[in-house]
Specification:
The protein has 15 helices and 18 strands. The chain is of the alpha+beta class and 426 residues long. It has a domain at 4-226 and 411-422: ATPase, nucleotide binding domain (Nucleotidyltransferase, domain 5, 2-Layer Sandwich).
Length: 426
Amino acid sequence: MKYYLAIDIGASSGRHIVGWKANGEIQTKEVYRFPNGVTKANGHLTWDIEILEAHVRTGIEAALKQYPQIESLSVDTWGVDYVLMNKNQPILPCYAYRDGRTEAVIPQVHEKMPFSELYRRTGIQFQPFNTIYQLYADKLAGRLEQACGFLMIPEYLMYRLCGVKSHEYTNATTGGMVSAQTGEYDAEIIRALDLPKRFFKPLQQPGTVIGTYKGIKVVLCATHDTGSAVEGIPMAGNEPYISSGTWSLLGVKTERPITNAASELANWSNEGGVGYNRYQKNIMGMWIVNRLRAELCPDMDWGSIIAQAEKSRFEETADANAQAFLAPKSMKEAFDEALKTAPQNMDDYFRCAYRSLALSYMNAIQELQHNTGKHYDQLYIVGGGAKNAFLNRLTAEATGKEVVALPIEATALGNLQIQMKAAKEE
């Protein structure tokens, strides 16, 4: 029997999951879990990449203790963030996407190439933290002068394991510089922004074996976690999905990118999938309720919070995707300022937050159907949000869709499936 290791790292935690096939089904076991989160350094939000690497290595050792023979491993994380490299050494700090350093440079990027042209070329929705803006901020700060290139975070972690630098396709697409037509970095964008050509290497597809670590093959999965999550959803057909975590990624598989004016206006993205395009939108997720909990009731379990929210009768909602909710000092105050009626207690805040999320899903589904010209009957939800029966019910009511909630580790499953396919274990 062959064993595989998926290292799935999110913005708030990471996990090492061993998988194998038995009776045609993938079986899994979590062998290590660790916390993650941004740190503040010199007024900026950063990732402690050295601690992340230490956890990756510790988790591999934990896996080997239980499963001494592991066929391969792969790492997936969130998208857009990267580590600048000076030959074989990282250039620190490693900035986090929620840091505000890109705000001042976005207009300058759009002067070089208007967003409408960027969208036509890449099909990637505007987000202030897209890699394109982060790299341009680094260029203006002089950080690129000493760099020979950059590695997206999962590729950096795998480089530290096997010594091979790689550039995986699905993760690269999240940054806003990959051509929707060719699937490679867009030379015209790089030229217009005067970014170093040496940074932009040919992209590699999920399933590529790049090296070894302690006798274990290091394989590229879809290193953007949503790419792996979509691959791991057991759909009967092709229906919309929500990968529900810190963010909610709502979309559907399409044969090719959709980069028309309606998609640009509604800020839809076209990101790389495993043999298909992911037409999706990055919208608010569990971030707002996680921050409310940290502020209002940090010691209360989620079951109690949700039960209390269900009892509330607070009816007003907010635009969950408003800029005010992205990184407020106080999530409670952000809601207070957005609402006409002040919530009376904790229950009201959480009911408002969950109903606001459900309405944002409804709006996104309506846009999706309009832009694709297709009607969908079901909505698959995976990730942490799939465990929330209250939010699932609100979502079904708001969207009019049959919600298929799968509280599975879809990202890890997709990661494992890609490794198994690379090993020709169908």
